[in-house]
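Forum: Protein Structure Q&A
Topic: Joint prediction for protein chains with partners

I've read a bunch of threads here and the consensus seems to be that you should model interacting components together rather than docking separate models afterwards. I'd like to see that in practice. Below is the full input, 427 residues plus whatever partners are listed. Could one of the regulars post the assembled result?
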Amino acid sequence: MLLTGLGLGLALGFTMQRGRFCVTGAFRDLWITGSTRWLTAFLIVVAVQSVGVFALDAAGVITLDPQPFAWLATILGAFIFGFAIVLAGGCATGTYYRAGEGLVGSWFALIFYALFSAMSKTGALAGPVAALRGVTVPASTIHGFLGVSPWPLVAILVTGVGLLARHHLRLRSPLPMASLPARSTGLRHLLFEKKWGAFTTALIIAALAILAWPLSWATGRESGLGITGPSSAIVNYLVQGDAEVIDWGVYLVLGILIGAFIAAKGSGEFRIRIPDALTTVRSIGGGALMGVGASLAGGCTIGNAMVNTATFGFQGWVSLLFMIIGTGAATRLFITGSARVGTSPALVPANR
Amino acid sequence: MAQHVLETDGQVCPFPLVEARDAIARLNLGDELIINFDCTQATDALPRWAAENGYPVTHFDRIGEAQWTITVQKA
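Posted by a regular:
Agreed with the consensus. Here's the joint model:
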């Protein structure tokens, strides 16, 4: 039933494109505007998924199997990954869905991300990556370390995120937000035109993330959503022709790409867009660093920061923290800092 | 009242927003800033930024496949 991966990926890619769900943006906003709106949406996915995952575990549908915490590689890799996603202009899923929107810069980022993931997992960089990941502490999950049931932690997380969401829902801007004029009605308007709210999008993604666990499990791939492993597997398959590496996750990431393309095409948001020289170089460098960073950290913004966090793994939460710090460093350097010089467009008086 | 155009086509997010923020700082009160952009995410980020800062949006539309324009008045 590998095809369930394709179906889930289609839904995920579609939702992320229509909802403009961008984890890089969520982390970056903290450093540019100080806004926590998208971070809250991201945490809604973690909190809701947490309830679902521990319920599935309790019901015996899945069995969570904690691994020793590779703290050094996680800290290092997460910082590199957080830094790299600013250069690449999107995290792993963000890059997949922007590739589906026709951004050629994201095609470059995606190719180098997959290539360097494969190099780090099974290729030229596998030795050092494995050595760094060999530095572990026996602690694995927060509740395991504390010797308590995960449910109190789930309750704390859900309450905290709920309060944060309530705070954002109560915020009122001085002016109402402008929207694009409607051109269609009914289902077509809802799917391809209407603006999807950040929190609604988060709830849909959370449902898909929960569903990913039993669907993936049923095919023998015992984990939830993940992007880096499958991306690396695609490279391995393409260069070695070994069909054994094609698993549920490979169908998932291909689904994300196609789902985002359908969403973008259907809403008039697909166009092949060629980046300038600077953006191209940054996309390539960012993609390569993303591959190394995610392999070191044991996951990307999805596998670690969104899924492993939901199981209260140390790897997930430490990753989330260091990814945000890495994003901040790159934002200061490349967006709000001096390296931005040379990209600024001219401000010209309009012909009236 | 003067109108100014900021062409950000080809720039990925968050650059359209960062550039718009810089550009509007250089305008006089009542002036309008026309921002042309082709980064999908900015269809959310730019109108939200305008609303949160109390800048009226006088025009917001699609001008082609994955191309948009928004006019924001400095107030």
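Residues 67 and 110 of chain A are 28 Å apart (CA to CA).
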